[in-house]
Design a protein that fits this description.
With about 80 residues, this protein is an alpha+beta fold. It contains one helix and three strands; from the N terminus they run βββα. The chain has a three-stranded antiparallel sheet. A hairpin with a 7-residue loop joins strand 2 and strand 3 (about 45-55). The longest helix has 20 residues, at about 55-75. The mean pLDDT is about 90.
């Protein structure tokens, strides 16, 4: 989408999902992202609550958008790419 394009975003019925673990299952046609919560009492257990299926082109656009947001947060000093100690 170019900067000149605009659209109306309606999110009144949106569900809010929380995850502290994301998995990626890929094949030549799609990427399936699993969103889940790791069990704090047993870190080897993850309760996956949603799967998001994206075509490869949509996944690439998603990855580009995430990368742009990360770079913006770095520029603003909110986060750093340096690994935590």
């Amino acid at each position: 989408m170019t900067e000149k394009e605009s659209f109306e975003l309606i999110d009144e019925g949106s569900e809010h999902l929380y995850a502290n673990l994301i998995s990626f299952n890929t094949n030549p046609e799609e990427v399936c992202m699993g969103l889940g919560i790791r069990d704090i009492r047993d870190p080897d257990v993850v309760n996956v609550h949603s799967y998001l299926h994206l075509t490869i082109p949509h996944f690439l656009r998603f990855a580009e958008a995430v990368n742009k947001q990360v770079n913006l947060l770095i520029e603003r000093g909110v986060i750093s790419r340096e690994p935590e100690q």
